[in-house]
Write a structure and sequence with these properties.
Elements lengths: L1 H22 L2 H5 L6 E5 L7 E7 L5 E8 L19 E3 L5 E6 L4 E8 L2 E9 L3 E9 L2 E8 L4 E7 L5 E8 L8 E4 L5 E6 L4 E6 L10 E4 L5 E6 L4 E6 L3 E8 L3 E10 L5 E5 L6 E6 L4 E7 L5 E9 L8 E3 L5 E6 L4 E8 L2 E9 L7 E3 L1
Antiparallel strand pairs: 1-2, 1-28, 2-3, 4-5, 5-6, 6-7, 8-9, 9-10, 10-11, 12-13, 13-14, 14-15, 16-17, 17-18, 18-19, 20-21, 21-22, 22-23, 24-25, 25-26, 26-27
């Protein structure tokens, strides 16, 4: 009997040690996710929703949950249901997720609470067909791109995840935008208007109210997506198959650095840029490809790889993980999220996950 108890006493420390070793093993560490998530907006009608995935250390995605937005998307509508970039965006601290409900003219706010995505509120967008959202601190502007009076509408986001209206500023007559984006310091708001080959520059006052926009002719045809790189360099993808870079000068002008650098592809609409700003990745919806551009410290753009990836189909929205190691791309027409490894502007296909047809909007941590 004493021998049996002795064996048990010896076994317990060994079991504890084995468990410790197993938890520290490379395989289990590779499967951990912490606060690494990818979010995809279903854009369903009548019940829009956001799908939350865990992002594993190898870039793969594991489905966690789908949370209703409380509003309506458009449902399937070709390769590009919303005609926009940034319909689903994270706040800078990663605590809130804002989603455009284009089918019900509302914006929903969801929160990440102990890694769990929860619905918090919804608010009227201030116009028709909200399709893009910009965030700077607690200041939020929504692009309402259709109806008789397209506009940008500003809100303050409180600590409970509720939006409070502060201003509605009309777009010039006949303009409907594709992307709205704050300058890095929040003092200007840019809107890309593909249909008129223009970029609108809104000065933003200290109280958060946007002023009358100043239109500027785009260096390339059909400007669509906007991101910022080094030294407040504005990087704009162009559906005509190119990308341009600009230096923002004051509140009313963009000086062209590189104008309409071609990627030789079709429908170059969506753009992602890592935190270091050294390259840009664009989705060429018409060609079914992704291209990469190099960006130097002065904002000069050169084509790195016309076909950095060739997934086929019609890739649209994209999002880079915070660490810049992975790119996630919506393929709305087929209902897929494409996964790529990223290495200095080079892409490696890592697989796909299946979602509903009609998705648009993607955000990553």
């Amino acid at each position: 009997m004493r021998v049996h108890l002795f064996a048990q006493n010896i076994a317990l420390p060994f079991l504890a040690l084995a468990l410790f070793v197993a938890l520290q093993s490379p395989k289990l560490r590779a499967d951990s996710h912490g606060d690494k998530f990818v979010y995809v907006m279903s854009n369903k009608n009548p019940q829009n929703s956001v799908i939350q995935y865990s992002r594993m250390n190898d870039g793969s995605l594991v489905w966690l949950r789908e949370v209703a937005n409380g509003g309506k998307g458009t449902g399937p509508n070709g390769a590009d249901p919303l005609g926009s970039q940034d319909s689903l965006v994270l706040t800078g601290d990663g605590h809130f997720l804002l989603a455009a409900n284009a089918g019900s003219n509302e914006v929903s706010v969801l929160g990440v609470n102990q890694e769990r995505l929860v619905w918090l509120s919804k608010t009227r967008s201030g116009g028709d067909f909200p399709n893009s959202i910009a965030i700077s601190g607690d200041l939020v502007y929504v692009l309402n791109s259709k109806g008789k009076a397209p506009n940008v509408t500003g809100f303050r986001l409180d600590v409970n995840g509720v939006l409070h209206w502060i201003a509605t500023v009309p777009l010039p007559e006949g303009m409907a935008g594709n992307d709205v984006r704050f300058a890095p310091d929040g003092s200007e708001l840019l809107v890309a208007v593909s249909a008129t080959n223009q970029i609108l520059i809104f000065p933003v006052a200290a109280n958060g109210i946007a002023g009358t926009p100043v239109p500027q002719v785009s260096a390339g045809a059909q400007p669509f997506g906007i991101r910022f790189g080094h030294n407040e360099t504005a990087l704009v993808s162009e559906a005509a198959g190119s990308m341009s870079s600009y230096q923002l000068v004051g509140a009313d002008a963009l000086n062209t650095i590189s104008g309409a650098v071609s990627d030789t592809q079709a429908a170059t609409c969506w753009i992602s840029v890592p935190r270091d700003g050294k390259f840009a990745l664009v989705s060429n919806t018409g060609s079914g490809t992704l291209s990469s551009f190099a960006i130097d410290v002065n904002g000069t753009v050169t084509l790195l790889d016309a076909i950095a990836a060739n997934p086929g189909g019609a890739p649209i929205d994209s999002a880079l993980s915070d660490d810049g190691r992975f790119l996630y791309v919506d393929e709305s027409a087929q209902g897929k999220v494409l996964i790529f490894g990223v290495n200095g502007g080079n892409l490696t296909s890592l697989g796909t996950v299946s979602v509903n047809v009609g998705i648009q909007g993607i955000a990553a941590q």
